[in-house]
Amino acid sequence: MDTKEEIISRSEQLFMRVGVKSVTMDDISRELGMSKKTLYQHFENKDSLIEAVVNTHCEREQILTDKLTEDAQDALEEVKKIGAYFATTIEDVSPSTLFDLQKYYFKSWETLMKKQDEHIINSIMKNIAKGIAEGNYRADIDPAIIARIYAKATYMIVEELGNSKSEFSRKELIWELHNYHIHAIATPRGMKLWKKYNQIDS
Fold first, then answer.
1. CA torsion angle for 124, 126, 129, 131 (degrees, to 10)?
2. pTM for the complete prediction?
3. Contact criterion met (CB below 8 Å) for 11 and 55
4. In angstroms, how far is the first alpha carbon of the chain from the final one?
5. Distance CA 30, CA 157 (A)
6. Does residue 178 lie within any of the structural domains?
7. pLDDT tens-place string over residues 22-62
8. What are the backbone angles phi and psi of residue 166, rounded to the nearest 5°?
9. Are 97 and 165 in contact (CB under 8 A)?
């Protein structure tokens, strides 16, 4: 890992832990054990660093979720694996991280939402096509419309995740999103498989 990659990686960890707004370039240089001069050689300001963190995060998430998709046996297991992955990783994110991005660094927030929206819509359309071919999803649905509904629902979940006073746990939010989605599109065969994967009593 070169110096720039290390700065991005360690900064992301710091942002995830304590939020974005409260972290200064001084904090980051201390965290990395490097001078501010070195830090500013790679990033002219905090905004440019945050933008790099967001882009790197999105690229990494896409690679990881694509790998989970490749390893899944069927469309339903894809949804199960991706849901479990996000439920685990989101636990380490401070509620203020998402709030800070949206309120104080809106350009990076828009980048995050746009990239995630594009990836989610593309992934869900592929997942639906696969599930229909398997007989696990209904054939009378429009993948493009369902994918966009799912993406908007995901956006609402992200907003709720940024709410430190939410009455719901993060795992509950992610589970209900996916459970609701599958109930809307699955065939009886698909529902049986979904219950099996999630060990739900019939």
1. -70
2. 0.84
3. no
4. 49
5. 34
6. yes
7. 999 999 999 999 999 999 999 999 999 999 999 999 999 89
8. -60, 140
9. no
Beta partners for 137? Answer: 186
Residue 75 domain boundaries = 54-198
C-alpha–C-alpha distance, residues 175 and 185, integer Å: 16
pLDDT range class, residue 201, cuts 50, 70, 90: very low
In a 10 Å sphere around its CB, with 0-12 CB exposed, 13-18 middle and 19+ buried, how is residue 181 labelled?
buried
Locus of tokens 């989101």? 90
Dist CA 143 CA 178 (whole Å)? 16
Q: What CATH code is carried by the domain that includes residue 194?
A: 1.10.357.10
Domains of the chain: total: 1
Contacting residues for 70 by C-beta, under 8 A, at least 6 apart: none
77 touches 180 (CB < 8 A)? no
Distance CA 141, CA 132 (A): 9
